[in-house]
Design brief:
Shape of chain A: globular
Distance between the termini of chain A: 33 Å
Helix content of chain A: under 10%
Oligomer: heterodimer
Strand content of chain A: over 45%
Number of strands of chain B: 12
Number of helices of chain A: 0
Radius of gyration of chain A: 13 Å
Order of helices and strands of chain A: EEEEEEEEEEE
Structural class of chain A: mainly beta
Structural class of chain B: mainly beta
Shape of chain B: globular
């Protein structure tokens, strides 16, 4: 039991819509990272939040945005959904970054039709 | 920038046989190395990690990995696999400091009864 929970577990959206995914980090962790895992691929880094500030971003367009709240939970927002956004979205929490272990949630499976 | 190559996309192996899953990385700086396992419809679970010290690292479920700096490899091994080891395995690297995990594309281990 990692303590990282994500909601919802599955959802289906239509192209052009907007979606919000949520992540509750493990108790005591102040860093949350989001990853996109397309079918048959490894997870790709979207962005990371440390103490409510974005402090790293991967190669994703601005329509991917996020927030981290004072309790260190986090949201991932995606605007103007495209078919290629269909993927498993993983949230990971850790204490600081780098060599510390990241604990992953079970993911949210997003399907864009 | 770091990169990870997992040399085999699929590895079938008979139950109770040994297995090796290969991982090579590329980085111009020192890194930390990880192996994660992903069971169907689940998030990632840490198997083991190399931060420093002994190059042979033991993890959960009987897995171990050896860090080889000269060959930039971090291969995962298990002397005797079980049906329950059937899963996707991901090698990942992170640079020390405030940087995210970089994953390989994964290796699907299928254990045959």
């Amino acid at each position: 039991e990692t303590g990282v929970t994500q909601s919802p577990t599955h959802l289906i959206k239509t192209r052009g819509q907007q979606v919000t995914l949520r992540c509750s980090s493990q108790s005591g962790h102040n860093t949350v990272s989001w990853y996109q895992q397309a079918l048959g691929q490894g997870p790709q880094f979207i962005f990371q939040y440390y103490r409510e500030e974005e402090n790293g971003r991967g190669n994703f367009p601005p329509r991917f945005s996020g927030l981290q709240f004072p309790n260190y939970s986090s949201e991932l927002n995606v605007n103007a959904l495209e078919l290629d956004d269909s993927a498993l979205y993983l949230c990971a929490s850790s204490w600081a970054t780098g060599g510390t272990e990241a604990f992953f949630g079970q993911g949210t499976r997003l399907t864009v039709v | 920038a770091q990169s990870v190559t997992q040399l085999d996309s699929q590895v079938p192996v008979f139950e109770e046989a040994p297995v090796e899953l290969r991982c090579n990385y590329s980085s111009s700086v020192s890194v930390y190395l990880f192996w994660y396992v992903q069971y169907p419809n689940q998030g990632l679970q840490l198997l083991l990690k190399y931060l420093s010290g002994s190059t042979l690292v033991k993890g959960i479920n009987g897995f171990e990995a050896e860090f080889n700096k000269s060959q930039t490899s971090f291969h995962l091994r298990k002397p005797s696999v079980h049906i329950s080891d059937t899963a996707e395995y991901f090698c990942a690297v992170v640079r020390s400091g405030n940087t995210p995990l970089v994953f390989g594309k994964g290796t699907r281990l299928s254990v045959i009864a």
